[in-house]
UniProtKB/TrEMBL annotation:
GO biological process: DNA-templated transcription termination; transcription antitermination
Name of this protein: Transcription termination/antitermination protein NusA
InterPro entries, per database record: KH_dom-like_a/b, KH_NusA_2nd, KH_sf_prok-type, NA-bd_OB-fold, NusA_N_sf, S1_domain, TF_NusA, TF_NusA_bacterial
Gene3D superfamilies tied to this protein: 3.30.300.20, Nucleic acid-binding proteins, NusA, N-terminal domain
Bias type Polar residues, positions: 79-93
PROSITE patterns on file: S1
Domain S1 motif residue range list: 205-269
Signal peptide residue numbers: none
Natural source organism: Candidatus Kerfeldbacteria bacterium RIFCSPHIGHO2_02_FULL_42_14
Domain of life, source organism: Bacteria
Length: 454
């Protein structure tokens, strides 16, 4: 048994990066609790020295030598044990004392002395001003007086720790071994949970692969290697069907410590999952040449993503789409055919709103900066395209830009701020010298060459 315990402790230390001493301290603390429960006395401060190599242990009562002059003496509660005669006389004595106290209080209330009251108030203020810390009470479990300590150790001084060895029953040896084994197993589990928590805390915001283990109600439990992750219903993509054994790529949303171990929440509906997929597929995003400025997503249906190039000779949209749509198609396939609109970000809100409403062609945009609202004017044949199915296009554009956008038909009168005409590069692709317009996943198949400009 002893050799098994040593091996188990060393395994914990090597695999979980825990010190040998900390594991040993935990075992000794558990043994002390077990001894105190079965054999210990009320005022004994039990400490155990365990030797895992031999499996032997020593038990001590450990106390610290204290200066009784600096401590408040222990209150002795003697009225609990009384003789029959005392128990009869106690109520009578208590009644007499109570009557005297009441008479005294009545006199004091009837004729209070103003001088005495003032003097009492001054004394209370002086006592409060002194701010003396109350003395610590003597604790017979952990403290021992110098007088008693000298009977055990002739050269004892205040502050010394006196350890009195206690007899160890034969049954405690078996109990100690079993306790040590249980503590080691528990420590292994705790160390493993802490390591998993630490590993995945540093991976929040990453995409990992997993296999659907089981389905519990609306929650999906996914095996991600060292542990099982939770994908709640709000993090699932509508219209996706999950089944045990199915392989999935998932986005780590959060990691929390619970009584049952680390809880890792993952998602397939999070907008940042789209960003991470593009980060993997587009080297220019990974290197920082292209930035993803904002994302608006309705998982399973459509996503709009705004990108910006930090270099003039790099086309951000073309880089994300890839040659013949290869890059964006990889992302679309991973998302189960979800449509993706890639638009160019701009710090000009009019230009950005026009891009965000693609593929519709916008005639003009009117801004209400006070309420951060925008009114986009379109031709009649572009109205349904700008609004989108069930309002999806304008809804995603609003999320992407941070502006509340309304669509009106050309010629319809509008009130508010001055209307700003749409720049031509946001409307047509045909003029020379015009930047690449926003590209949608619907148009990818028609794009022959979308590589970055040389």
């Amino acid at each position: 048994m002893s050799s098994d315990i040593v091996k188990a402790i060393k395994q914990i230390c090597s695999e979980k990066n825990i010190s040998y001493e900390s594991v040993l301290e935990t075992i000794e603390a558990a043994m002390a609790v077990a001894y105190r429960k079965e054999f210990g006395l009320k005022n004994q401060n039990i400490k155990v020295n365990f030797h895992p190599e031999t499996g032997q242990s020593e038990v001590y009562d450990e106390k610290t030598v204290v200066d009784m002059n600096t401590l408040e003496p222990l209150e002795e509660k003697s009225p609990q044990v009384t003789s029959p005669a005392e128990s009869v006389s106690q109520p009578q004595e208590a009644t007499k004392v109570k009557i005297k106290a009441e008479k005294k209080n009545m006199k004091a209330e009837a004729a209070p002395s103003e001088g005495d009251a003032a003097q009492k108030q001054e004394q209370e203020q002086e006592q409060e001003g002194e701010g003396e810390e109350p003395k610590r009470k003597f604790n017979p479990k952990t403290d021992i007086s110098l007088e008693d300590a000298l009977l055990i150790k002739t050269d004892a001084v205040i502050g010394d720790v006196i350890r009195t060895k206690l007899d160890v029953a034969a049954t405690f040896g078996r109990m100690a071994a079993q306790t040590a084994k249980q503590v080691v197993i528990q420590k292994l589990r705790e160390a493993e949970r802490d390591q998993i928590l630490q590993d995945f805390e540093s991976r929040i915001g990453e995409i990992v692969s997993g296999i659907v283990q089981r389905i519990e109600g609306k929650n999906i439990l996914i095996d991600i290697g060292k542990t099982v992750a939770l994908m709640p219903s709000q993090e699932q993509v509508p219209y996706e069907n999950y089944r045990p054994g199915q392989k999935l790529r998932i986005y780590i949303v959060s990691v929390q410590k619970t009584n049952k171990g680390p809880e890792i929440v993952v998602s397939r509906a999070h907008p940042n999952m789209v960003a991470k997929l593009f980060f993997t597929e587009v080297p220019e995003i990974e290197s920082g040449v292209i930035e993803i400025k904002s994302i608006a997503r309705e998982a399973g249906s459509r996503t709009k993503i705004a990108v910006q190039s930090l270099e003039d000779n790099i086309d951000p949209i073309g880089s994300c789409v890839g040659q013949r749509g290869s890059r964006v198609q990889t992302v679309i396939s991973e998302l189960g055919g979800e449509k993706i609109d890639i638009v160019e970000w701009s710090d000009d809100p009019v230009r950005f709103i026009i891009h965000a409403l693609s593929p519709a062609k916008i005639l003009s945009v009117k801004l209400d900066e006070k309420h951060k609202a925008a009114l986009a004017e379109v031709k009649e044949d572009q109205l349904s395209l700008a609004i989108g199915k069930a309002g999806q296009n304008v809804r995603l554009a609003s999320k992407l830009t941070g502006w509340k956008i309304d669509i009106i038909k050309e010629g319809k009168p509008a009130q508010g701020a001055t209307t700003q005409k749409a720049p031509e590069y946001g409307v047509t692709q045909k003029e020379e010298g015009v930047k690449t317009p926003p590209i949608t996943s619907d148009a990818v198949s028609d794009t022959d060459d979308t590589t970055p400009k040389a």
